[in-house]
Amino acid sequence: MEKYEQNAFQIITNVGMAKSSYMQAINEAKSEKFKESEDLISEGNQFLIDGHKVHKDLIQAEASGETVPMTLLLMHAEDQLISTEIIKEMAKELIYVHQNYVKK
């Protein structure tokens, strides 16, 4: 597997794990397990950081003159990265709502 394909898969894998953590955090908040929810957000954040590091390395490589091929796989990885950022923010808001406004 070529270097750039590996980079794309690293991004996809890390942000996929982050997305799963964020979604699980929402489920925990729905069950009023707010400590677990907070821990899952933190876990997701670390996966997201790891995905961003790989992406940053690709940007730096291109900025230093290396040709980084724009493939459908890399576009998919970037799309997943962006959508996971949105899911993270929505998860935090939903957790806040469950913590402060939803009474069972």
Short description:
With 104 residues, this protein is mainly α. It has helices at residues 3-30, 34-63, 72-100.
Radius of gyration equals 16 Å
Give the CATH H-level superfamily: Phosphotransferase system, lactose/cellobiose-type IIA subunit
> What fraction of the residues are assigned to beta strands by DSSP?
under 5%
Low-confidence stretches: none
Distance between the termini: 51 Å
Largest sheet geometry = none
Find the count of extended strands (DSSP E, 2+ residues): 0
Anisotropy-based shape: elongated
What class do helices, strands and sheet pairing give? mainly alpha
The amount of helix comes to over 70%
List the helices and strands in order: HHH
CATH fold type: Methane Monooxygenase Hydroxylase, Chain G, domain 1
Q: What is the residue-averaged pLDDT?
A: 96
What is the domain tally?
Answer: 1
- The CATH architecture comes to Up-down Bundle
Q: CATH class, please?
A: Mainly Alpha
Number of helices: 3
Protein name: PTS lactose/cellobiose transporter subunit IIA
Modified residues (Phosphohistidine): 76
InterPro entries: PTS_IIA_lac/cel (IPR003188), PTS_IIA_lac/cel_sf (IPR036542)
Keywords: Phosphotransferase system, Sugar transport, Transferase, Transport
